[in-house]
Amino acid sequence: MRKYLTAYSIALQETLQRRSTLLMDRLGGFAIVLSLYSFWNVLLGDKTSFLGYTRPEMLTYVLIINVLRSFVFTGRGWLLVGEISSGRISSYLVRPLNYHGYALALDLAQKTVHVASAFLEIGVLVLAARGGVFVPRDPAAWALFALAAAMASLIFFFMEFAVSTLAFWTSESGGPLFCFELFLQFAAGAFFPLDVLPESLRRLLAATPFPYMVYFPARVLLQKVSPPEAMRLLAAEAGWLALAAAVAIGAWSRGLRSYAAEGG
Amino acid sequence: MAIALNVKDLSKDYRSPVKEPGLWGGVKALFDRRYKDTRAVDAVSFQVAEGELVGFLGANGAGKTTTLKMLAGLLTPTSGSALALGHVPWRREAAFQRRLALVMGQRTQLWWELPAYETLRLNQSIYEIPEAEFRRSLDELVDLLDLREHLSVPVKKLSLGERMRAELAAALLHRPKLLLLDEPTIGLDVVMQKKVREFVREYNRRTGAAILLTSHNMTDVVELCRRVIVIDRGRLLYDGALDALVARYADHKILRARFTGPIDTSLLAALGTVTSAGDGRASLQVPRERVAASAAALLRDFPVGDLDVEEVDIDDIVRRLFQGA
Predict the structure, then answer these.
(1) pLDDT at residue B13 tops 80
(2) A16 CB near a chain B CB, below 8 Å?
(3) Domain count, chain A
């Protein structure tokens, strides 16, 4: 366990060391949230509610997207693709190290910095908007939200890991990874609540793990899900997590068997 | 002495896509991809005893690095067997990995933005090295590699030589009993090459680790290895004393001279076999026993501005070996 804590600590130092990259990442994310915030603000206009969301709830949804983007969608997929394609991954494979655990530790370090920054940004927006957001008082809503978000983060980690391991077989795995990430953000509800979509598309998405990434945790926090429904959905989310982990680990061991250890 | 490496009939085939040239070839490959199997290592067998320092030689693409990667557990062979420190390498057992180090001259495991010390700390955790042992090992490596003042500098600020030495420290912190070194002096200046060589020799002496070293630098091999294994196109060509190999195939050195004035190139033939001459420069192959005399004659009888005495290129020896095989 200690090796993964040390890896976490070192990765945290390095993330902080790359100040301009961090700043650019945050500015990019902040711009998205600011656009969504302004968009929904205008769309809501004088209405008290839209698609079943009150104005404060909708604005909270948008703000919570910022936290979930930082917590769920901050991954190392592109680095993994690069490490496999260039053969740099060899240096990890010859050490007594579980690569999934190691990658997860590095991932958590990155998320720590990004989530802290996301909360700061939200604070700025809430102050600028002079309140007007929905803050749940029930600790159970926060606890369920944290659990749903933690599982969402792990699902993303394993799914991205599985897609990135395509690099073991093809030098063109960047394309699938790019499509996966783009589609994921749309299907997860990271641009707008999925209630906006037609019923048929929503039903289709409900049969995939994607809505569990943003839409479901955000609705749990907004107390839009009844406790029994929340339990049922959490159980389904746990099922997706187990499946994603199994696929990622399976793909990894198959990939290692065909690994060509490219380059000198 | 116990056997550290026991390799038997090890072979590895690579599968690579074949594409016809041009745009049409690219389009065709999109729908009908064809593959070609290439044998990179072909039934190679050898043993290395604990404490032995063996040079592993071959031209580019000979199969050296592929063999090293199989012995480090990175690649699974197509056929054959290997035992490294009693383990099958490609099973990647932690007990084996804790006693192994693979250093590739062109690769780094150091964290780029952070001082090398942080990577050493990480490796301390990864290899579960107790604090007291870490301190002792670190002190020893830092002294041997002359690294003390460089450990606190971000890796990206280090020169190539400093980085390579930090790399060695990170790789050897856990005192591996089997060290696979792939081109450890590549890209380094002569002073750094010498430092790295001295370190490898000293590490081998102090720890009794078995070391398998690949290098294109003949000086590395001559200074460090009494035994060499030569492969070409995946096949083992020679396994034995370096002296015997050099005596047989590198019985000469190369004299390279730059002249400050015009010379009569026909006179050079008396000093050795002229391999090139012109533009104020000449290159001669001279039998080892005549190197001193020929160099003295060059300096005495010709307007020499600069003179180099070089060992025959490893690739050249291997080529001769291959032609003679």
Answers:
(1) yes
(2) no
(3) 1
